[in-house]
Amino acid sequence: MLGRRIRRIEVVHPDVLRESTRAFADRVRGREIRSVTRRGKNVVLHLTGEFALVVNLGMTGRLLAFPAAPERRVRPTHPAVRFRFADGGVLVFDDQRRFGAVECLDRRAWRKRSRALGPEPLARAFSARALHEATSRSRTAIRTWLLDQRRIAGVGNIYASEALHLAGIHPARPASSLTREEAGRLHRSLRSVLSAAIVLGGTTIRDYRNARGEQGNFSRRLRVYGRNGHRCPRCGATVERISLHNRAAFFCPVCQPAVAT
DNA sequence: AGTGTATCCTGCAGGC
DNA sequence: TGCCTGCAGGATACAC
Description:
Layout: E1 6-11, H1 21-28, E2 33-39, E3 42-47, E4 51-56, E5 61-66, E6 79-85, E7 90-95, E8 101-105, H2 107-115, H3 128-135, H4 142-147, H5 157-167, H6 180-199, E9 240-244, E10 247-251
Antiparallel strand pairs: 1-6, 2-3, 3-4, 4-8, 5-7, 6-7, 9-10
This protein binds a DNA duplex (16 and 16 nucleotides) through loops.
């Protein structure tokens, strides 16, 4: 989609916007996509005029790109917003549940938003030591801690469970109870889980698709997420599911004991 | 400041 | 088959 100019915006479901359709469309129309980056779970399309089109997929959102010559591969099922390009192509934000969001922020607003997010776990600057210092200040369950985007950016429920399993840390452990060694293991696990998932194109449970409409292949590599009742790939014990702050957490009771190791 | 609860919305699986 | 309940990748507005 790089270099394309957005000629027309069609908003099917205004509830994925954070402002009026009119204000949104007026700000986006006529701009060109200069580059695409990511911050945490947000896809950022940098537009001419220093504007950032910020897309959060939520639970069921997807950004589907259709080039000018439609080779008809995937059809959007729940189009919420369509960006039509001057060259005939179209980018669709498709979202069954509409928990996702699409916003157009100016430079200043985007910087402010980005500053409110925690560090990128894959950035060089993100150290085990910094992670330990940060976790030591909170008594909330480590799984819940990992989901808080202000503390660390981009970790969702799937990767939180997977990283904790790899690190051998029980999801309900208070963040502040992690030893330096455990924080070190968690730091490594987060990085390896996230980078492996990126290489495999993400995790498709049901809805996730990349811009070409293809599923992510990390689903096959899940060790505990959604696998309660199955055997732990490391020790063979039965994976359990518990509810933590109203969200499921999956873990192996043997590999992830409730006390520090 | 930090934590727990409810809410937004659609669709699917499982029990009866 | 049909109805009901619970649950789902996320984030945020509240009350306390």
